[in-house]
Specification:
Length: 438
């Protein structure tokens, strides 16, 4: 097969002074930061759905993207050709991982059996491409939201047959993820939510979602899939309310249904912001619960209230993200998956390179700045000192569970008034962060 991107060769690191749009200015894969290379820290992944299946279509118009390798069919033959294009793209970009939904990589057939056969044919090719290039699967997932059979949801559908179909689909998707040595498997609740409570039995739907995940956990054990399961929070879109609305809601759900040890979270920037949180907030919620698994890297638009899935270009944002990721020990099975798409007007293949190079450079800068902030130590020291009343005396006794209300009352009676707190120094800390954003 001829190359899909003949004019583009391997993207290289040229440093911050380079004016070459097809070179990295900050992402230097072998550069060591806090004892690991940038490549090991960031674990970049390309999303098959946006990069290979995005057309630029929106609610107001058909697709605009020029993709010379597409032959206009949704055939297995085209799927295999497209897989090769994807691996050429990831290789030239130097992205070590990719991620996909089952239906991104292979077309549905006339029935489930034929659909599974289609998937098997493409997975065979993907396996070969992985071996040839060394590119690995960050995570696989099943598309349980596009087909009309899932209009009322999949695991939370009012229709038991839809639950059954979704279970069969996820079974197969876990199998192929396992076959491809995937490091993880994501559950994003595509249409697991509601449009109106008037027609919804919420309790029953949540019970079904939990039952579905338990079945998946059982099957994972049965086939010996060692990858990490993740749940991906999102508050709305396509439904008015998605059950996995944010990190806290997901953790609560996982705890309530005895699933907490089995799934970590895959946190996406634009989903966190749609939930009214910063990305850092949702990462902190996940991290403090020991459930920070992976991230979907993108950004929204301040003035548009929907999931615009733009490539991240804001260094302040990536600095905050990397500060939190480093704080919780970095990625293990997870990575930085660009769940992001080029704009409808950016219709040429080269735009895919500009977009990913920009995202990778922005994360590389965030990583470097975060490491410098940590090395400097003033931020961490400030927070430690702010809580120092808990390190000794009554604070330490409370933390150790050694005192009850009775002892605390005695202490308060002797103590008199609470001593004035130290300033929170928000503005000082914001200035401190800006010292490092160069
Ligand atoms: C949708 C979204 C999905 C998941 C995988 O907003 O983020 O692409 O990441 O199903
Ligand atoms: Co996502």
């Amino acid at each position: 097969m001829t190359e899909a991107f003949p004019k583009i060769s391997q993207i290289k690191y040229e440093g911050p002074d380079s004016k070459n749009p097809l070179a990295f200015k900050y992402y230097n894969p072998d550069e060591v930061i806090e004892g690991k290379t940038m490549k090991e820290h960031l674990k970049f992944s390309v999303a098959f759905w946006h990069t290979m299946r995005g057309t630029g279509a929106d609610m107001f118009g058909v697709g605009t993207f020029f993709r010379p390798w597409e032959d206009g069919t949704n055939s297995v033959q085209m799927a295999i050709k497209r897989a090769k294009v994807m691996f050429e793209f990831c290789s030239k970009l130097g992205a070590p991982f990719y991620a996909f939904h089952d239906r991104d990589v292979a077309p549905e057939g006339r029935n489930l059996r034929q659909t599974n056969q289609n998937l098997d044919k493409v997975v065979k090719e993907l396996k070969k491409l992985q071996t040839d290039t060394g590119i690995k699967l960050l995570w696989g997932t099943a598309c349980l939201f596009s087909h009309p059979r899932y209009m009322h949801g999949a695991a939370t559908s009012c229709n038991a047959d839809a639950f059954v179909y979704a279970a069969a689909q996820v079974k197969k998707a876990i199998e192929v993820t396992n076959e491809l040595g995937g490091a993880g498997y994501v559950f994003w609740g595509g249409r697991e939510g509601y449009q109106t409570l008037l027609n919804t039995d919420m309790k029953r739907e949540l019970d079904h979602l939990a039952a579905f995940l338990h079945l998946a956990v059982d099957y994972k054990k049965k086939i010996g899939f060692k990858g990490q399961f993740y749940i991906e929070p999102k508050p709305k879109e396509p439904t008015k309310h998605q059950y996995d609305s944010d990190a806290a809601a997901c953790l609560n759900f996982l705890r309530q249904y005895d699933l907490i040890g089995h799934l970590k979270l895959n946190i996406e920037t634009n989903h966190a912001t749609l939930a009214g949180h910063t990305m850092q907030h949702d990462l902190e919620v996940a991290g403090s619960a020991g459930a920070l698994g992976s991230i979907d890297a993108n950004t929204g638009d301040l003035f548009l209230g929907w999931d615009t899935d733009q490539f991240p270009t804001d260094v302040y944002l990536t600095t905050m993200i990397m500060l939190t990721i480093l704080k919780y020990g970095g990625f293990t099975t997870g990575g930085t998956n660009f769940d992001a798409k080029v704009r409808r007007e950016s219709f040429e293949p080269v735009d895919l390179f500009h977009a990913h190079i920009g995202g990778m450079d922005t994360f590389a800068r965030g990583l470097k700045i975060a490491a410098e902030i940590r090395k400097d130590g003033r931020l961490q020291k400030f927070v430690e000192e702010r809580y120092s009343s808990w390190d000794t005396g009554i604070g330490a006794q409370i933390e150790k569970g050694k005192v009850g209300f009775k002892e605390l009352e005695e202490y308060a009676l002797k103590m008199g008034e609470v001593k004035t707190n130290k300033s929170g120094r928000q503005e000082y800390l914001e200035n401190l962060i800006n010292e490092f954003i160069k």
